[in-house]
Amino acid sequence: MSNDYHDADDDAPVQEDRLWQGNGWTARVIKNDDDDGWAVAMIKDGEPEPALVGPWTMGRDKKNPKPLDVNAFNTLVKTANEVIRRHEQQLHAQLHKNLTVGTDDGPVKVCLDITPDEDDPYATLTAFDQYGEELARVRVAPTFKLSATSAGAWIDHGYKKP
Predict the structure, then answer these.
(1) Given a cut of 90, is residue 39 above it in pLDDT?
(2) Which residues contact 132 (CB under 8 A, 6 or more apart)?
(3) How do residues 42-82 score in pLDDT, each as one tens digit?
(4) Could you tell me the superkingdom of the organism this chain comes from (predicted)?
(5) Is pTM beyond 0.70 here?
């Protein structure tokens, strides 16, 4: 066997009973510390922690885990991607809020965008008219609570920093 063939083989993704790699993910079947069963951890390439850890099926001998296969792996990848997508949507919803306030000049959309910087977190409050033109922008505390009342007060006070 030549070294060239062996080197190419080393770069191939691992696809074993308890470890499967592909599509930017690694599935690792692990002993479940909480009971006698098994769990599977889905780790996205480059990430230090699993995105998903869930129960894994016992094999026919009722002692060892069922081996990973391509179908199970693909299902796990789909599930892990969905978990990440939902987490990102939830984070986005926490960091970006908006509402519309009726004024004598028409509706004003007020947006609160939080920047969760470790050293200097802050938020930006922005107002837009009904045509999407920016009316005002101010920096506020990241703890600022956007509500119809707080947005209305900001508009009524001429968009001065609350």
Answers:
(1) yes
(2) none
(3) 999 999 999 999 999 988 888 889 999 999 999 999 999 99
(4) Bacteria
(5) no
Give whole-number Cα distances, 144 to 121, 127, 156, in Å. Answer: 12, 15, 17
Question: Tokens 């949507």 belong to which residue?
Answer: 89
At residue 132, φ and ψ (nearest 5 deg) are 90, 5
- CA pair distance 133, 27, nearest whole angstrom: 48
Strand ranges in 7-133 using DSSP code E only, listed in sequence order: 19-22, 25-31, 38-44, 52-56, 96-103, 106-115, 122-128
Distance CA 134, CA 57 (A): 55
Other C-beta atoms lying within 10 Å of the C-beta of residue 26: 19
Please state whether beta strands 52-56 and 19-22 pair in parallel, antiparallel, or not at all (unpaired): unpaired
Using a 10 angstrom Cβ sphere, with 0-12 exposed, 13-18 middle and 19 or more buried, the burial of residue 151 is: buried
Element (H or E) spanning 3, and its range?
helix 3-10
Question: 137: which DSSP letter?
Answer: E
Token pair listed for 123: 């938020």
